[in-house]
Write a structure and sequence with these properties.
Layout lengths: L5 H8 L3 H8 L7 H14 L4 H10 L18 H16 L12 H5 L1
Protein name: XRE family transcriptional regulator
């Protein structure tokens, strides 16, 4: 539903591709809260057409950013804009799985 590849998920979570492959292949247990995080994002993405999923990715909705009229792309209808806004809000509200500390940000959490 979200349209992320294993490589894309690994990049977003700042982990190696092997970690994501182990989860996908069942070699590493997926915590309930991590699964719920993914399901929540998938629910926000579900109403989007493939075209709007591509817009969401290019517009940075997965980083909580929002742009109403991206340069070089047709203006969005109010319904499309509302759907993308919901995706952006879902990602902004839960940018990481619960208790997830991205690599390189451990010092920020402690500090």
């Amino acid at each position: 539903m979200i349209g992320w590849t294993k490589r894309g998920l690994a990049r977003r979570l700042r982990v190696g591709q092997g970690a994501v492959k182990h989860m996908a292949n069942g070699r590493h247990e997926i915590r309930d809260d991590f699964g719920a995080w993914l399901e929540g994002l998938a629910a926000a993405h579900a109403p989007l057409s493939p075209e709007l999923r591509d817009f969401a990715d290019k517009m940075g909705c997965d980083r909580g950013e929002w742009v109403r009229y991206p340069r070089g792309i047709r203006p969005l209808s109010d319904d499309e804009a509302a759907a993308l806004r919901r995706v952006a809000e879902a990602h902004a509200a839960a940018p990481w799985p619960p208790e997830w500390v991205p690599k390189g940000e451990e010092a920020d959490e402690a500090g």
